[in-house]
Design goal:
Length: 323
């Protein structure tokens, strides 16, 4: 059956956000329980990646293109789901830019376009996101059918169902920090975008498919290269504001490392930021292990000395520094 867990029976999009945040809190609690109890999920992925096929949806987006080209360069078999062949030719360095190159045209809001690219796929990386456009008066709007509810919730749901039907062994999702706060300014000004991203997380968590959910903070542009900052992981939007942003190239690298280290990355759902004052992350296996520990509010990975537990007197959960 094409069912994804029990959360479909209480889909949050039917409830208004003016319920004093009560339903938001219920959903967030469910997400925490699901993510905690899913940490033991494992799969029989081949560490060598020799026969594996990775499909990236949103492959022509800024993060998607970085990840696609990085995986191709590393020798992975990669497919990309795109909405525009012209843009694919521009950013994916493909030749014919069709199915022979592993490039498929589709729309995540239309499940019929997902069947062909999903066939034979080992791993799905969901990098799709609703994207606001700017009006002449300076306000932002979404095109019809591309609202956060359409893309970040229902579009993710259709991708997860399609992946499960196709026998995909690992689904990686890019969500966002800020989803614990119903009063976040992005929700107020961008059609409750973080609200619906949290719905997308819940769908994946309830699907039974091995998952990795990365929730980056503010994205820094292409002028900030990867590998120049200490990456920081945490939970529940408790990363300090000074380390809550991250270069987009580092986000792509974290997904690449999650693909190449599935035993460590599966079952992790975590906030992701970076510290520009500390040396770059080198130990991604430790980063993912810390990310799977939901007692960790903030941990930096990459060769640092492990620190003592702290922060309890202030009411925060435990904080530690990882190797």
């Amino acid at each position: 059956r094409n069912t994804i867990g029990t959360l479909n029976t209480i889909s949050i999009h039917r409830y208004p956000l003016n319920m004093a945040g009560s339903y938001w809190r219920v959903l967030f609690s469910i997400v925490l329980v699901l993510s905690h109890h899913s940490f033991s999920v494992t799969s029989a992925l081949d560490p060598s990646h020799g026969d594996e096929v990775t499909l990236i949806t949103g492959a022509t987006g800024k993060t998607g293109a970085l990840l696609y080209n990085s995986l191709v360069k590393a020798g992975h078999t990669v497919r990309g789901l795109v909405r525009s062949l012209e843009k694919a030719k521009e950013v994916l360095n493909c030749t014919s830019c069709d199915s022979t190159d592993g490039v498929y045209v589709g729309d995540v809001t239309d499940e019929s376009t997902l069947e062909a690219p999903m066939e034979g796929v080992t791993r799905l990386v969901i990098l799709t996101s609703s994207v606001p456009l700017k009006a002449d008066n300076g306000s932002f709007f979404f095109p019809p059918g591309q609202y956060p509810k359409d893309v970040d919730f229902l579009g993710v749901k259709k991708q997860v169902i399609s992946a499960k039907n196709a026998g995909v062994k690992h689904v990686l999702l890019c969500s966002s920090m800020g989803s614990t706060n119903p009063d976040n300014f992005l929700n107020k000004h961008l059609e409750n975008v973080l609200f619906y991203k949290l719905n997308g997380e819940a769908v994946l968590l309830s699907s039974g498919v091995p998952f990795t959910i990365v929730k980056p903070g503010g994205l820094l542009g292409e002028d900030v290269p990867a590998g120049t900052r200490r990456l920081m992981v945490g939970h529940d939007d408790l990363l300090d504001s000074g380390v809550s942003s991250i270069p987009r190239a580092d986000v792509a690298e974290v997904f690449k490392q999650a693909i190449e280290n599935p035993e460590e990355s599966q079952g992790a759902r975590f906030d992701l930021g970076s510290d520009p004052s500390r040396h770059a992350t080198g130990d991604f296996k430790t980063l993912f292990r810390d990310a799977r520990d939901i007692s960790v509010v903030e941990a930096g990975a990459g060769g640092a000395e492990r620190g003592a537990w702290a922060g309890r007197k202030s009411g925060r959960q435990s904080t530690k520094v990882a190797h």
